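Q: Given only this backbone (463 positions), what sequence would you predict?
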């Protein structure tokens, strides 16, 4: 195969699929090259014995307007489902007991999660001086503004839930830019959040909310609809050993599909694959520059879907529970999926998702499935008040490089990326190595990538 296109996208996960969907809308000639024999990347929904289980992400947050806009643009072909308002409660484990995270000032005063000293100190948070170190790690920032107990029992479990990471290794400016900007722009987390709430928003900004979302029937319905709408014939699957070489007018992309050599010439190439895939793919990048991109750590995550035909454990009256690192447990948290989303378990039953691993407990990744099963059984029975562990479905999904960690090396990484993109016009190195790790960030980036391509002059391409 030998063909010439305007734009080539590497990777058909959520980022590549969203980019492709909007490139198609803009009438741009493109092709997507994917290494696997399926699209979706880490998003994969399974239906099994009446349970709808996600292998990768379960839910996202509608925090960027681009998510709601994507569902609008998909025109009803798949339905965004927001989590039930009845199960807003989030639990945090402290001294082996679940405590609800406070949702209002009275609960905040009463909660045993934080010390009296830190609660009192919080009253002074709006009056504190703002930080001046752009590379300050999250743990330092939170201790400085809120105190250690807020770090241990609010921020640490939140970071385990989102990054499977360590607040001491994440730089706030890159890992939680919205939080960083609250301090920089408003001088306070509390004051900033309050002021932002009352700021005037246009109709696009209003589409961003804090609501938790998934897709009716599972997240694969979203990826499959993006695939279909972007045009399945534009996708080349099972493409191995991709290399990209810059030329005078075109990038030359070479690879193999089942031993058949393929050559694609493209004016633009967008990579949406992890940083660890880039050295082989971009052989023209000097090793010293590539090292700065590749240096990034990734958290290993094991996700375990557990289904019960008849639930006899504790009441599933919330979103789920997160477990601070200080509690020294073998799992990071449990999500009460069937309470959040409809149709995920047979009536009377329950679907839960347990996750384990992370940057501070990578060892679990090396354990066998049966070792993981017995470890999960022990933790699950005590935490979820289950007397007899007899799930009708138990599935383990492993991701060695699940979540990239935005640490101190982010500065060198971003500089290297900018330098390469300036030097090789038309090369865009994207994906979750930059601009956020959640599904909302991926959708936002995908849309922006297509917009960027659309702004370029359209040369007539001789095929
Ligand atoms: C276990 C887990 C749980 C998560 N939970 C949540 C959550 O609860 N909420 C949330 O918002 N986000 C969550 N995330 C993050 C979210 O799933 C990801 O940000 C998003 O799905 C990533 O999409 P992507 O397209 O950037 O990357 P990927 O999904 O990784 O897609 C990259 C694609 O590139 C392909 N590829 C790789 N190498 C090559 C190559 N050499 N040549 C060609 N193709 C290649 C891959 O096969 C893949 O299809 C979770 C992620 C994981 C792993």
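A: Predicted residues:
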């Amino acid at each position: 195969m030998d063909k010439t296109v305007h734009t080539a996208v590497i990777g058909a996960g959520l980022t590549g699929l969203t980019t492709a969907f909007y490139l198609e809308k803009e009438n741009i000639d493109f092709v997507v090259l994917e290494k696997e024999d399926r699209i979706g990347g880490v998003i994969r929904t399974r239906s099994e014995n009446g349970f709808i289980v996600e292998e990768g992400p379960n839910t996202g947050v509608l925090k960027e307007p681009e998510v709601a806009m994507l569902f609008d643009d998909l025109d009803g072909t798949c339905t965004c489902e927001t989590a039930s308002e009845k199960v807003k409660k989030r639990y945090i484990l402290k001294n082996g007991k679940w405590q609800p995270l406070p949702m209002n000032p009275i609960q905040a005063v009463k909660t045993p999660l934080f010390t009296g000293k830190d609660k009192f100190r919080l009253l002074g948070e709006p009056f504190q001086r703002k930080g001046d170190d752009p590379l300050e790690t999250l743990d330092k920032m939170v201790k400085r503004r809120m105190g250690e107990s807020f770090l241990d029992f609010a921020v640490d479990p939140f970071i385990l839930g989102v990054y499977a990471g360590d607040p001491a290794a994440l730089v706030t400016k890159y890992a939680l830019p919205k939080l960083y900007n609250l301090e920089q722009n408003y001088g306070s987390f509390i004051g900033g959040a309050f002021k932002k709430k009352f700021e005037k928003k246009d109709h696009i900004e209003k589409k961003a909310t804090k609501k938790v979302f998934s897709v009716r029937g599972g997240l694969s319905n979203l990826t499959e609809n993006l695939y279909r709408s972007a045009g399945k014939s534009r996708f080349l699957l099972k493409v191995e050993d991709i290399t990209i070489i810059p030329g005078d007018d075109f990038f030359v992309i070479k690879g193999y599909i089942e031993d058949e050599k393929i050559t694609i010439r493209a004016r633009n190439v967008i990579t949406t694959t992890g940083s660890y895939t880039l050295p082989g793919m971009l052989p023209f990048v000097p090793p010293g520059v590539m090292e700065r991109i590749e240096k990034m750590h990734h958290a290993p995550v094991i996700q375990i879907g557990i289904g019960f035909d008849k639930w006899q454990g504790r009441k599933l009256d919330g979103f789920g529970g997160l477990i601070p690192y200080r509690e020294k447990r073998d799992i990071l948290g449990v999500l009460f999926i069937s309470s959040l989303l409809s149709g995920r378990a047979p009536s009377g039953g329950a679907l839960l998702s347990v996750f384990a691993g992370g940057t501070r407990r990578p060892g679990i990744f090396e354990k066998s499935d049966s070792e993981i099963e017995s470890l999960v059984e022990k933790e699950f029975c005590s935490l979820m008040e289950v007397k007899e562990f007899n799930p009708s479905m138990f599935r383990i999904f492993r991701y060695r490089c699940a979540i990239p960690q935005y640490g101190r090396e982010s500065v060198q990484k971003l500089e290297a990326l900018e330098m390469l993109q300036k030097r090789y016009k038309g090369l865009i190195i994207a994906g979750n190595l930059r601009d956020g790790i959640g599904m909302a960030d991926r959708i936002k980036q995908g849309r922006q990538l297509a917009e960027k391509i659309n702004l370029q002059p359209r040369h007539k391409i001789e095929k």
